[in-house]
Amino acid sequence: MKIGVTGLGERKEIAPGVFINAAYRGCTPGFVSTEEGVIMIDTPLIPEQAIDWRAQIEEECPDQPILYVFNTDHHRGHALGNQYFMPTTVIAHERAHKEMSGYTENFKERVFNSFKREPDIQKQMTNIEIIPPHLTFTERTKLLYGGREVDLIYVGGHTPATSIAWLPEEKICFVGDVLWVDQHPYMAQANSKEWLEGLALIRELGAEKLIPGHGPTCTAEATHKVEEYIIFMRGRVRDYYLEGKNKNEAKSGLVSEMLAWFPVPPDRKAKIESQIKSGINRVFREIQREEEISNGGVSASSDDDDDDDSE
Fold first, then answer.
1. What class, spelled out in words, does domain 12-221 have in CATH?
2. Among 68, 133, 196, 206, which has the minimal tally of Cβ within 10 Å of its Cβ?
3. Could you tell me which residue, 301 or 142, shows the higher pLDDT?
4. What pTM does this model have?
5. What are the residue boundaries of the structural domains of the chain, listed by start?
């Protein structure tokens, strides 16, 4: 999340007919131009930026309809801007529909209040309309339009809805928040084991360019750092668990170790520490379930615990 960034930026063509804008806050949205219309990936969080992005799309693709908006997950940074691209069809994983259908007036109020220190943005957040997916998928689906192929693939990991958009012809993959570059990954809804499997899957695709949920394009090499981060956290949490420590002791002991992995802006230190604690809390329960099962016990899943829409 780029705090305080409200610039509009310019679209960048990363392959013929494939565009992104890494200047927006909340996510790096993209779109694919086809002979039949436009397929979008994610929508900007800030209304001014969403309106600008639509204007840029219409400038690039005049008289072409927006065929689909694909949300890589249900978090506000990727899906709250859907309302500014209607009429079109929103598509996402089925869990994204479940989550977004549950966004209440309380959710809208929390979004509004989260910008209390940024009144210019807050005043844009007075008419939030939630547009959940119109179409959902479970594992994979394929969009074939105007000579283009866009494969939508569920990977989970970051959230129970996280999915990626793979363009096999162009060897480009929009990976959403599976990949964080030089930032602490947001893990409040994470399944760390699934996350590692998702990173491996992305590498197996053979993509030449990855578009992370936040930031500019990179290569598959960037997946290794976040993979190492998650493996390290899992290992250290397991150490604490096997020593008989509880999750609060794990959180207290491990935050400083995890902080050292990525840059931490001084003004965001408290927020990132809280974010890391949420991730440790999540991973602790995973390790606890894994150890109970390996020892012949039975442990109930808790995928819905600690659901958080703040990113």
1. alpha beta
2. 206
3. 142
4. 0.92
5. 12-221, 226-294
Rounded to an integer, what distance in angstroms lies between the CA atom of residue 195 and that of residue 29?
Answer: 21
* Dist. CA 71–CA 222, nearest whole Å: 22
| pLDDT for residue 295 | 85
* pLDDT band at residue 256 under the 50/70/90 scheme: very high
pLDDT value, residue 297: 67
